[in-house]
Fold this sequence. Notes:
Number of domains: 2
Number of strands: 23
CATH topology of the largest domain: Lyase, Ornithine Decarboxylase, Chain A, domain 1
Strand content: 15-25%
CATH class of the largest domain: Mainly Beta
Radius of gyration: 24 Å
Oligomer: single chain
Shape: globular
Low-confidence stretches: 1-6
CATH architecture of the largest domain: Beta Barrel
Bound molecules: pyridoxal-5'-phosphate
Distance between the termini: 61 Å
Largest sheet: 9 strands, mixed
Amino acid sequence: MSHSELPADLTDSTTGESVTIQTEQGLYVDPKALSAHLPALSYRGDALYMEQVSIDELAKQYGTPCYVYSKQAILDVYQAYTDSFASLNHQVCYAVKANSNLAVLGVLAQAGAGFDIVSRGELMRVLAAGGAASRVVFSGVGKTYSDIEYALTQGIGCFNVESISELTLINEVAKSLNKPAPISLRVNPNVDAKTHPYISTGLKDNKFGITHEDALAVYQQAADLSHIDIVGIDCHIGSQLTEVEPFVAALDKVIELIHSLRDAGIELQHIDLGGGLGVRYIDETPVSIDEFAQALLPKLSELGLTVFFEPGRSIVANAGVLLTQVDVLKPTEHKNFAIVDAAMNDLIRPALYQAEMAVIPSMLPSAGIDTDGTQPWDIVGAICETGDFLAKDRLLSLATGDVLAITGAGAYGFTMSSNYNSRPRASEVMVSGDSHQLIRKRETIEALYADEALWQAQ
Ligand SMILES: Cc1ncc(COP(=O)(O)O)c(C=O)c1O
C-alpha cells in the first residue's frame, strides 16, 4: 500500500469520544487518545507508563509476553461499585474466573470483596489469598459431590443452584455432613443480553439456570428438602453488556418471582444480579457503574433485600495489559504480518470471540505519529493456526524489537491461557505507584512435561 493513501495526520482526525479512524487499509487506534480513557495508562512524552512505571522498563525486567496489572485501577473500580450502591446493603462478589491471580484476589479480599467462584480450584485460590468462604457464592452448572462437600465444609456463603439434580445432590451432601446448605436458585429470565452469543447466558437456549417459568415450583421443592436453607435468588444474563436495559428487564422478571415466592411463604435474604457490565476496549461506550446503579437502585431499594453483584470483567479488564515484543515483520503482497511473542495461547479473546483489542506501542515514534512509517499489520502469534491472531489490519509503525501493549487484557486473558504448542504461560506483574512485583513466574518448558511419563509397560 502506498503511504499517501493514509490520512495526512491521523492524530488530528479522531473526533469526540472515538479514538479510531477506519481507513480502507485498516483501523488506526490513537494511542494517546485511547490511554486517556484507560485507568493507570498514560504517555509521558513518547513513553507509555502504567501508574508510575515505564512499560519498557517492565518489559526489560520481566521479559515478554507478560501480563501487567495496576493495583489502583482494580481498587478504584471495586470502590466505584461500593460507592454507587452505598445506600443498600450489598456485597460485591468479584468473579474469580476473570482473573484469578492470588495477588489480584488478595487485593480485593483486603478491600472487603466477596467472591463468585465456579470450581473447587477457585475456592481454594480465594482462601489462599485470604478471602472468607462465608463471602463466597458458588456458581456453575456442574458442581460435583466433592466440590459441594469441600465448599460446605469451608462454610461457603451460598450455592447458586442451576438444576433440580444439583439441588438434590447438595441436599444429600448437606445431610451427610449434617450441615444445612445455603442456596439460591439461578433463574434464567430469557432476556437477550445483546452481547456475543458465546457470552450470552440468560436465554432459553443457554445451558444456564432454571427457567423463569419453573423457578417457583423448584423453590417449593427446595423448601421441602431437609438440609436446604433457601437464602436468595440469582441471575446472570451475560458478559460485556454495554446497555442497562437488559439488566433492568432481568431484574423485573426476578422481582416478579420474589413476589410470587413471598405469596407462597418463601422469604429470601438476598438478590444476586450476577456480573456482566461491559468495558470500553476501544470505542465501546458502556454504561458507567453509576448509571447502572441509578437504573437499578429504585427497584432494588423497595425489596428490602441484601444485593449481591458478581462483576469480573468490569473490575479487572482495563487494569491490565499484555506486553509483547515484535519478533518478525513479514510483509507480503496481500498482507503485512507482525509476528509477536504472544499468541492465541496467551490471549484467546480475539480468536474465540472475534474480540477487537487495542494494540499500542510502548514508545511513540519520536516525531509523533510517523505516518510515513505507518502500515496496516495483522498482529499474529507464532502458533500453527490461522486463528492465531491478536489484532487484524491495524495501522501501526513497527520495527522488530518494539514492545507493544495489548490493552483491556486484565480480564479473561491469563485465566483463559493455555500451553498449546508447548508454550509456557506468560509471567504476571502487579504495579502500584512506582513499585512493581512479579506475581506469577513465567512457566518453564520443563515444567510443562514434568508430570508426564514415557510408556514403560509391555
Ligand atoms: C455466573 C457468573 N457470574 C459472574 C460472571 C462475571 O461476568 P463479567 O466478567 O462479565 O462481569 C460470569 C461470567 O461469565 C458468570 O458466569
